[in-house]
Amino acid sequence: MSATASFRRLLNEVGPVDQVGIDERVAKFTTRSIKKASKVKGLKLAVSMVDLTTLEGKDTPGKVASLCQKALAPHDGLDCPQVAAVCVYPAMVKHARRALGEDTAVRIASVATAFPSGQAPLKTRLAEVTAAVGDGADEIDMVINRGAFLAGEFQRVQDEIVAVREACGEATLKVILEVSELETYDNIRAASFLAMRVLRPDDFIKTSTGKTSLNATLGNNQVMLEAIRDFYLATGVAIAMKPAGGIRTAKQALHFLVAVKETLGDEWLNNTRYRFGASSLLNDLLRQLEKEKTGAYQAPYYFSEAAESY
């Protein structure tokens, strides 16, 4: 069967996306007014959903330790929660585990499976997952084989996700679609269903690696939220969601949370069902909380540096 025929068959199963309808819906999310106590609650919720991240070739154990300290105590002068997780390369997992210790709610996530390209033999990708989990990773962020998906090799895509899911053991799995390389809303919806069909409840689908030109947008986030909703209504299985890359301001984060509330409901407004893969976002959330507390904005340098967002 050709790639075109395979895709048409899958699209008939999951249904196409009304792009105009998606764009109209997400435009309305940006018009919602959130003020006072509700805004503070939303800002703190967003802090609790951040995966604080460093994914650089120059990462060191010391840099990871500093990141972990910020994850545990984002800002001493503010009453705000810890972040959800720190996210690091597999080689840094053991250093993150040492810095966080065992008795913490902050989880360790690790990108694996030849992140960000996914262009390595499956055996190598699975070995990376096994090593990261063995060193203490609570969560694995994998990338799908976009080449196989675009070639219509959907069974291969699913089989590889299943193999990674098995290698994760008890660890949570986040499946990165890399939406910019899937190119269309129909492809994003189809890939979402391929992944969800072989995931466990509360595993994640995730927009992006943050290493391409286009990352999380309200549009592609909405396509994936609606896929999660439709899959849940059909199966009763709740899949979690993580937009990643490009979300840098508190205002953006609140728009994304409005989308979650209006599409999936309050059951997804927690960090077991929704995350932000963004690190520079954290400081803007803290600035906004400080402003709500004191009435004045602090300069960016008032807060410790976070890693680059992804």
UniProtKB/TrEMBL annotation:
GO molecular function, one term: deoxyribose-phosphate aldolase activity
Reactions catalysed: 2-deoxy-D-ribose 5-phosphate = D-glyceraldehyde 3-phosphate + acetaldehyde
GO BP of this protein: carbohydrate catabolic process; deoxyribonucleotide catabolic process
Keyword Lyase: yes
Gene3D superfamilies named among the record's database cross-references: Aldolase class I
Claim: Cell cycle is one of the keywords in the record: no
Domain of life assignment: Bacteria
EC number per UniProt: 4.1.2.4
Class of the enzyme per the UniProt entry, highest EC level: lyase
Pathway: Carbohydrate degradation; 2-deoxy-D-ribose 1-phosphate degradation; D-glyceraldehyde 3-phosphate and acetaldehyde from 2-deoxy-alpha-D-ribose 1-phosphate: step 2/2
GO terms for cellular component: cytoplasm
Keywords: Lyase, Schiff base
Stored PANTHER family: DEOXYRIBOSE-PHOSPHATE ALDOLASE (PTHR10889)
Family: Belongs to the DeoC/FbaB aldolase family. DeoC type 2 subfamily.
Cross-referenced NCBIfam families: deoC (TIGR00126)
Name recorded for this polypeptide: Deoxyribose-phosphate aldolase
UniProt organism field: Horticoccus luteus
Taxonomy of the source species: Bacteria, Pseudomonadati, Verrucomicrobiota, Opitutia, Opitutales
UniProt gene name: deoC
